[in-house]
Amino acid sequence: MNVIKVKDYQEMSKEACKIVVEKIKELDRPVLGFATGSTPIGLYQCLIEEYNKKNVSFQDVTTFNLDEYVGLAPDDPRSYYYFMMDQLFNHVDVPQENIHIPNGVTSDLEKECHDFEESIRKAGQIDLQILGIGPNGHIGFNEPGTKFSSRTHVVKLTESTRNANSRFFDSIEEVPTEAITMGIETILECKEIILLVSGENKAETVAQLLNGDITEDFPASALHKHNNVTVIADEAAMKYVNKD
Ligand code: PGA
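Above: inputs. Below: predicted complex with 2-phosphoglycolic acid.
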């Protein structure tokens, strides 16, 4: 696992942006995996700036998102579909038909999971996946205890995750109890992975990721099984890790 230690959130976002832009330029038909949450917002702003400066085009980019809440429609401002349109896709030239985000309001969730996997396979696998990490070590919505062999599936969200995400809702009762997420094995099949982490509230999580055991109780530890993972972490997040 490569670790890039940066000063702060802004540097983390710029460093990630540089890697994404290079990947888009390097490949004819880049397939990118995106994440939601507070962490990648700075990266998306930087990508929009690069697009506006005509340094990059998303015309040939295909995208996959990690997860979506079950029960929230795409036009619900709290859905991850809405988040991605609002934070990135509406501001760049990615073709609408190239955007893949699990549909959390379909009547057949199992089929949705299967079709999502199939779309990734047809696109030729994800070239570069952006990840955040939850305080409990979750990646996507793969909560502690998720099998490393999991594919895209429906999960029951833990109380800790619902609590952490309740800041986007009026009350915790409104936070969905289930989500669709790419599985751990699906994530490990991405050719390259960038994990972004910022802030002191993630410092213990980063220490466990870098120094702890590889165990299904801490989903992000599966990333040690992958040979092309870069963690970009700021000084605050690296508080308990000795690395200059
Ligand atoms: P955050 O969420 O970026 O809002 O901290 C990360 C996650 O839960 O995966």
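The first strand starts at residue 2 and ends at 6.
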